[in-house]
Structures are given as structure tokens and as C-alpha cells.
Amino acid sequence: MTVPQVSAREQFGRVAEAYVHSRGHAEGEDLARIVALAEATSEDRVLDIATGGGHTALALARVAGHVTASDLTPEMLDAAEAHLRGAGIANVDFAPADAQALPFPDDSYDIVTCRIAPHHFAEPAAFVGEVRRVLRPGGRFLLEDTVVPAGETATYINRIERLRDPSHARSLSVDEWWGLLLDAGFSLLHVESFRKRHDLAEWMERMQTPPAARAEVLAAFADAPAAVRRAFEVEMDGEGRPVAFWDLKGLFLAV
After folding, report:
1. Handedness of CA 159, 55, 7, 172 (dihedral sign)
2. Which domains does the chain have, with CATH numbers?
3. Nearest CA among 96, 87, 71, 92 for reference residue 19
4. Do 239 and 199 contact (CB within 8 A), yes or no?
5. Using CA atoms, how far apart are residues 238 and 228, in angstroms rounded to an integer?
6. Cβ neighbours for 22, distance < 8 A, ≥ 6 positions apart
7. 170 phi and psi, to 5 degrees?
8. What kind and span of H or E run contains 80?
9. What is the rounded CA–CA span in Å between residue 45 and residue 148?
10. CB under 8 Å to 127, separation ≥6 — which residues?
11. 180-201 pLDDT per residue, tens
């Protein structure tokens, strides 16, 4: 099946509330690690790119002086603002922004974060370059996203991701992210990874995947080559039907 390309703005406008309430985005060791590695203080200005449900912005607002939560999708930004205002957070402003062409001045932030979103960016090199531009000298960049092995395994899982969510562009490998960061002028200080389990029914429901595409996703996992099943720890029920898989999130700290 050829998957039609859908813009992230169109796709996420339909599912904004689901991301506010997604436990996989609201919780997790990875979120705590971003906050710890950011080492934000009350003097720091933070930019959270592609804030989604606002979970990273919320966590950092509790330690930083000010946070700008940005997102391409107006409905997502509205949902994030309602979430943070409901939590009593007052030191966050909300700004529409394309991650690949940020509307912020040079050297305007001490810390930039982007969590589990860059696989939607068509031009990841432009995104990394924009982060470098808006960070002050010595500023810290916390980047987290799904990372994949090189080769056919990456091609296979990226095809499944696009079936589930047509706004998915591509998940990169650790080496690809490392190269993009270095090319943009960053020094990489730290890399770590986290396994995350995805219940297939919930994973597709959150994105409102149409029934025909859901069937294709399940068939693709059921028929996956052995290398894919091993890499993503595909779980089957007693009747041999795929019910869950695990992926890998890479967390990068660069300055």
C-alpha cells in the first residue's frame, strides 16, 4: 500500500486531547532524565519545541525561570495551554512555530528541548540548525526521539509507522542524529536510551488510525522478518496475533 502523506498539523489537530492524556508522553524515566540533564535554574529561559500535550514544558516550568512551549498545530497548542493552566503553571507562554523555521531571535534561549517529535520533521538538519541558532553560546539541547537500526529493519518499521500515522516522516538512527548534531556545530556530551512498550490497540487508537490501515499494521507485524521481530520485541497473543512491540528512544545532550 502507498501511504498518502499527511501534514503533522492536519493529523495532530484531530488527536490533540489524546496526547494530553497519553501516559506514554505524560510519564516515564525519559522525561525525568530530560529534566535532570537540562539542569535548569530559575535564571534559565527554555524553549520546548513540538510540545504536544505540554508534558516536557510542564516538567521544566517547575524548575526554570520561563518556558516557551511551541507547536506547529494550533489545536495541540490550545490543548497544552489548557493542561498547563489547569495545573497552575504561570511561567509558560505558548507560540505557534515550525520546528524547521523557528520564529525566535538568535541566541534567545538557555535550554532547548524536543521530546518524541522529530520523526515528524521532513528536514531534520534544518531543525537542528534552527536549534543551534536560537540557543545562546553554551546553551544546552535535549533531543529525544525514536531511534532505529540502519538498513532494511529501519525501512520496515518506518513503513509501519506511516501506516499508523501518515504524518510520520522518518525515524533516524543514533549515528544519523550524532552526525546532524556535529554538522550543526554542537558538541555531544551524553547519549542514553530507553525501551518503551506500545500496546498496539492503544497506539493506533490514539492516532485514530482508520480500520483498513490498522489491519495493515497488524499484518505487517505478523509477517515481519525475524530481524524486525527481534529488534522491536514484537509480542503475540496465544493465537499468534501481534498485540504489542517495544521501540528504542535515544536521548541526546548537546551544547
Report:
1. negative
2. 8-254 (3.40.50.150)
3. 71
4. no
5. 20
6. 53, 206
7. -165, 135
8. helix 74-86
9. 32
10. 49, 99, 100, 114, 118, 121
11. 999 999 999 999 999 999 999 9
Q: Measured between alpha carbons, how far is residue 245 from residues 22, 69, 155, 160, 186 in Å? A: 17, 30, 16, 12, 33
* Grid cell in block for residue 94: 505558548
> What is the CA angle 167-34-185, rounded to 5?
75
**Which pLDDT tens digit goes with each residue over 17-70?**
544 444 544 557 999 999 999 999 999 999 999 999 999 999 999 999 999 999
Residue type, 185: G
Compute CA 156 distance to the chain's CA centroid, rounded to the nearest angstrom. 19
Which of 91, 90, 130, 88 has the alpha carbon at shortest distance from 112?
A: 130
